[in-house]
Amino acid sequence: MKHLLSSHDLSVDEIVGILDVADHMAEINTRSLPKVPALRGKTIASVFFEDSTRTRLSFETAAKRLSADVMTFMASSSSLNKGESLRDTIETLSAMGVDAMVIRHKSSGVPLTMTQWTDAVVINAGDGWHQHPTQGLLDAYTVTREFGTKDSLSGRSIAIVGDIKHSRVARSNIDIFRRLGAHVVVVAPPALLPKNIESWGVEVRNTIDDVVGEVDALYMLRMQLERMDSSIVPKLTEYCALYSLTPERAARMGSGAILMHPGPINRGVELIVDPTDVPGSRILKQVTNGVNVRMAVLFTLLGSGATTVLQQGGES
Amino acid sequence: MKHLLSSHDLSVDEIVGILDVADHMAEINTRSLPKVPALRGKTIASVFFEDSTRTRLSFETAAKRLSADVMTFMASSSSLNKGESLRDTIETLSAMGVDAMVIRHKSSGVPLTMTQWTDAVVINAGDGWHQHPTQGLLDAYTVTREFGTKDSLSGRSIAIVGDIKHSRVARSNIDIFRRLGAHVVVVAPPALLPKNIESWGVEVRNTIDDVVGEVDALYMLRMQLERMDSSIVPKLTEYCALYSLTPERAARMGSGAILMHPGPINRGVELIVDPTDVPGSRILKQVTNGVNVRMAVLFTLLGSGATTVLQQGGES
Amino acid sequence: MKHLLSSHDLSVDEIVGILDVADHMAEINTRSLPKVPALRGKTIASVFFEDSTRTRLSFETAAKRLSADVMTFMASSSSLNKGESLRDTIETLSAMGVDAMVIRHKSSGVPLTMTQWTDAVVINAGDGWHQHPTQGLLDAYTVTREFGTKDSLSGRSIAIVGDIKHSRVARSNIDIFRRLGAHVVVVAPPALLPKNIESWGVEVRNTIDDVVGEVDALYMLRMQLERMDSSIVPKLTEYCALYSLTPERAARMGSGAILMHPGPINRGVELIVDPTDVPGSRILKQVTNGVNVRMAVLFTLLGSGATTVLQQGGES
């Protein structure tokens, strides 16, 4: 494993391995000095062609806790405005001596294409509708640790609700959840389902009411309000009537069932309930786990030693 | 003292204690290696919903000299543009494992409200017209060290000139200066005085000419040019005639009297004189002291040991 | 040598000395832990009044590899928008305790002017049409190391093609290349040559075809597309006919001849050929050398010891 471009590149053993390393990172993050020298001297570049403060800060925090140096490149302030090609930009950053690039781009496949242009490790932090593999991993970490079922989601059911068609989060999560053994249900208006949904190995249901009381995890996707304006999508009130989580629906969640969301939340759209009023909400736990899992990904791809080096503390 | 939200939260002993710690920091900043490992492994987030490069860099410099990691969050590049609530933003940053948040926001009371949403230490770096407590502390540090009167401003008079009504700096400084024993005079057009100014324990004068030759410190506030356009404020020329510091007025300052300003200066408005031509100007000294005092605040709120740890050098 | 404002400030011995230090830095950058503690505790501020992600990241990477702290100040997010003077900005940053300022500004002479306002070391990272001395140094490093002629370019010919008149890169490079002994040829439309070109000690040729097969190094300048719209400059198609590097022209480059460009490339303008198809292209090598040379400049201006301190590794 040289890069992390897609959940599909990872075997189940590799997924389980990363989640195990994330357990070490979670322990580090509870220390009074939550920092280890594992990646000292490495330079990790955030290369964001789409704005995402949340994901960028999560990766950069992870990098700093491993004592790596961070270089932040945001497209809006870059030479791309002056007509430089994407290839030139990537090759230039690479020539400065970057060990890994964490990239977000609005077009599917850009991280894969980048690997032709750089010797650095490439980590996909979201490309178009395609993939967001660290989100899939952090969510798998969240559900397995929540349910105490480390290497497996066998016998567990997870419903993913919202705009499946345009969601890279849905693609990464469905793949990982299924291969860990979960039964995955998707709930979306027909216009927001991909055409080949039959081939994804998921069950399709028509409204959140069909699943809210049954599943072990309810995963609400962020609704892109922009799409609401287009004619193919139902109007907001119609959408909310069938697909939003309301206080009434949240009250019907099973005891022990958890609520998840990749953030940022669109309050009043997919979540009409305040998540702090939902005892099963693990939305903030996902954020905390995001740092643990991204530390694990960076360490797995860039670290030279076994996890015993993570025992060292104090030095940073 | 868990947070620093307002000057009013601090007892006189606590104020004097922070200024004493700032003396240690001033010593560190004269070393050839001005850095100590006191906050190694801590993460300090700058959370700025209003642009202020000056204050942000001062805090971030302070944090780095204490070997903390810094995370910068600026609202303009954030999810708030996508409809995420302030609460979600704060909870998300907090869930990433932040030890302290330094916040600036245009609305009074936001830092206090934030303390409900995070376990991190919250430091108010300016909220609306309300408070800017580290400015009050660094200004108190500047005047006490200037006058050699460490724990007291007894017998000293300080005039604050300008838009008192809309100034968080005025509110923090008047409170701290008075409780350290200073006689505080405010000089402002009636429209730029708060309605309850009588209850503030200050003397009110009508023009800078009434005070310039008498006070030990002349504190010029930044004039918000935006307000000049509104009908309640006198026109710029009328304002300058009564309230600006001109070369003639500066020449009338007492020997030993000092000139202060929180920055950034509006040249040609509140300062018509070039401050580098005023021997008593301590405006740049305030900037230097700002780093010392913010190191002291961060150390007091986040450090685990006594100031003896500040003797250690070389390790960073 | 206190500052680095212009190539003209450097003696040939000083130029050669910096390039020698850059050899040490190149060695450091091949280590598995490419970091040395040479500038630990120093604060280096990037002060960019013109956007240049490439140059800024090159300097900041160089600073971090020497273990310095970095402070980034970009004018668009600064108080200058509020009417603060340039002098106040520089004095304020300086008062925070900055050891060096790396400045880019659209006006010639600003870095020199700044030296009146700060005790910090000032490094010119490009000022108007005037100078870009670290570009000249990194390009001299690239050609001398490429040709294996460490201290000299005697007997070598270098053609610089494009908008000489408005180019700070041309001014710095011509000066350094010539003083190291190179024969320098400039190729440009008459309207893009400075009026006093005769006094520059260079040969003037009329089209790239006159030089492409003869010179040891072909240095293509970035064409500012904005200027193409103005009436004094030939239309783009006419310009390209005489001055762009096409695949046909690239094929006529001598064996051993190298292609250089300061970046960012305007593909389809000065380079119609894809540089990755030109075996002699050293464009990415320039980027790598940029980090080495900027480390050497920072170390030379801020380091306190001999280069023996660069032998130390592992500590950062």
Automatic annotation (TrEMBL), chains A, B, C:
Protein keywords:
Pyrimidine biosynthesis, Transferase
Catalyzes what? Answer: carbamoyl phosphate + L-aspartate = N-carbamoyl-L-aspartate + phosphate + H(+)
GO terms of molecular function: amino acid binding; aspartate carbamoyltransferase activity
Give residue ranges for domain Aspartate/ornithine carbamoyltransferase carbamoyl-P binding.
2-144
Entry's SUPFAM superfamilies?
Aspartate/ornithine carbamoyltransferase
Any GO BP annotation: 'de novo' UMP biosynthetic process
Q: What is its EC number?
A: 2.1.3.2
> A Pfam family matched by this chain, by name?
OTCace_N
Decide whether keyword Transferase is in the record.
Answer: yes
Q: Which residues form the Aspartate/ornithine carbamoyltransferase Asp/Orn-binding domain?
A: 155-300
Identify the pathway: Pyrimidine metabolism; UMP biosynthesis via de novo pathway; (S)-dihydroorotate from bicarbonate: step 2/3
| Signal peptide per UniProt | none
Per the record, its GO cellular-component terms are:
cytosol
Enzyme class, top EC level, equals transferase
Look up keyword Manganese and say if it applies: no
Q: What does this protein do?
A: Catalyzes the condensation of carbamoyl phosphate and aspartate to form carbamoyl aspartate and inorganic phosphate, the committed step in the de novo pyrimidine nucleotide biosynthesis pathway.
**Family indicated by similarity:** Belongs to the aspartate/ornithine carbamoyltransferase superfamily. ATCase family.
Please report the name of this protein according to its UniProt entry: aspartate carbamoyltransferase
